[in-house]
Amino acid sequence: MRVFSATESVCPVCLRVIPAERGVGDDGYIHMRKTCPEHGSFDVLLWEGGIVDYLKWDTAGEGGNRPPVTVPAAAGCPNSCGLCENHESAGCCALLELTDRCNLHCPVCFASAGDGQGRDLTHGEIARLYDMLLERGGPFNIQLSGGEPTVRDDLPEIVALGRERGFTYFQLNTNGLRLAEEEGYAEKLLRGSVSCAFLQFDGLDDGVYRALRGRELLDIKLRAVENCARAGLPVVLVPTVAPGVNDSMLGDILRFALERLPAVRGVHIQPISYFGRCSLPEPERRLTIPRVLAEIERQTGGAMRAEDFAGGGAESAYCSFHASYRRARDGSIKALPRRRGGCCVKSAEARDFVAGHWGAHEEPDTEPDGFDKFLAEARDNTFTVSGMLFQDAMNLDLERLRRCYICEADLERGMVPFCAYNLTDSAGRALYRR
Fold first, then answer.
1. Residues 267, 263: Cα–Cα separation, whole Å
2. What's the mean per-residue pLDDT of the chain?
3. How many C-beta atoms surround the C-beta of residue 164 within 10 A?
4. 3-state SS, one letter per residue, for 305-353
5. 3 backbone φψ class: left, alpha, beta (φ>0; ψ -120 to 50)
6. Which residues form a coiled coil (predicted)?
7. Of 364, 269, 396, nearest to 322 (Cα)?
8. How far, in Å, CA of 217 to CA of 177, rounded?
9. Where are the beta strands (DSSP E) in 98-152?
């Protein structure tokens, strides 16, 4: 491997922090190589492209984005996150894991949920989490998560607790079962000020759901989308994409979503990461950003092109990708200009972008006209395609982790970067989760 830069990572076996190098492998692609004194050497593919393409992708890291409040570093990254004083990005989204319970037991689950009864956070604990987030620079965008948050009956009350403190955007991370099966539930959530349904949606084939979710769910997913559309609750489809399972279905998912604009505001792609509970074996060739973008271009017949996309700016560019499209009256789409420095350079910009494009908007009392009508039409015909490559113990890069802006809210530790909080070793032992 022709090395061009150094970083730090962890041993996949023991999670010990070890030096790592990035370089060009014999295949011409970018790899990370690292060696643990006890468990040997590891090599992982990072980027299917050459060094010029790899370095060109990172156009954003302009600094000035440190969090306003941090805690002293103790054991060092990634063992003392909270956010610690070495973290380089303010928060954008904070996950509140409201319950350990889940009404599925997916073969693939970063939280390893659904193994037992579990427990729910009390309203007192949730209020303390909101207050902690405010102390650390909030209000942030809130992701109501779990487990499966809809197994609780008090989501509107939980949102109200946050709104009393100044939080304004509440995204419901959900498998959609209750949205599909309970009449009027989507309307109840919208009345309760839930901003958006972030809907697990892995494909349009029940074989995909058997592989990733353990049961056939396509009909339930379709009904969940339909019920949200009828209620006016915005939806973002969130496919977990696994090689050989559903990576050939990105075009179908994108077309399905576009046909349901503006009820479906976009698609957020999450290439599979091998942490938590993951029954799928790690393939020799992992999904990378260039490969996902090439598949999007190929499967949409060039309607969406790889060059339409840019990396993030508030987070590491190598964590994410994003493009926005405008739908014309004839149904065709056109890519909107990419922002200089990626999607959003500051975490506050990222928060506003997500809330503005994915969140519910208050309907005017009268039919809009003039400029208001123009804005409403533009909003209703804008479609986002984005993705996030979460890190696991094989490809964890501490430089990327220190730029993370998606955090788990934890009463004991504070704000823990998502990829640290969910990190597990090769035997499934967690660094943070109990």
1. 12
2. 90
3. 10
4. CHHHCECCCCCCHHHEEEEEEEECCCCCEEECCCCCCCCCCCHHHHHHH
5. beta
6. none
7. 269
8. 9
9. 108-109, 141-145
What are the helix (H) ranges across 165-263? 177-181, 185-191, 206-213, 218-231, 250-258
Q: For the whole model, what pTM was predicted? A: 0.92
Partners of 43 in the β-ladder: 33
pLDDT < 50 stretches in the chain: 61-64, 341-342, 364
Helix axes 289-299, 250-258, angle to 10 degrees: 60
Instruction: Give phi and psi for 137, each to the nearest 5.
Output: 110, 5
Amino acid at 245: V
What residue type is assigned to position 419 of the chain?
C
Instruction: Write out the two tokens for 60.
Output: 């954003």
CB 172 within 8 A of CB 155: yes
Q: For 379-430, how does the pLDDT look when each residue is reduced to its tens digit (9 = 90+)?
A: 889 999 999 999 999 999 999 999 998 999 999 999 999 999 999 999 999 9
- Which residues lie closer than 8 Å to 110 by C-beta, 6 or more apart? 273, 275, 276, 277, 390, 422
Per the CB < 8 A criterion, the answer to whether 132 and 414 are in contact is: yes
Q: Which residues of 77-115 are buried (b: 16+ CB within 10 A; e: fewer)?
A: bbebbbbbeebbbbbbbbbbbbbbbbebebebbbbbbbe
Residue by residue, DSSP assigns 63-109 as -----S--B---S-TTTT-SSBTT--S--SEEEEE-BS--S---SEE
- Given a contact cutoff of 8 angstroms between Cβ atoms, the answer to whether 306 and 23 are in contact is no
Buried b vs exposed e over 166-187: b needs ≥16 C-beta within 10 Å?
A: ebebbbbbbbbbbbbeeeebbe
Interstrand relation of 93-97 and 141-145 (parallel, antiparallel or unpaired):
parallel
Bridge pairing between strands 30-36 and 40-47: antiparallel
Helix axis angle for 206-213 and 218-231, nearest 10°, is 100
Question: Strands 277-278, 108-109: parallel, antiparallel or unpaired by DSSP?
Answer: antiparallel
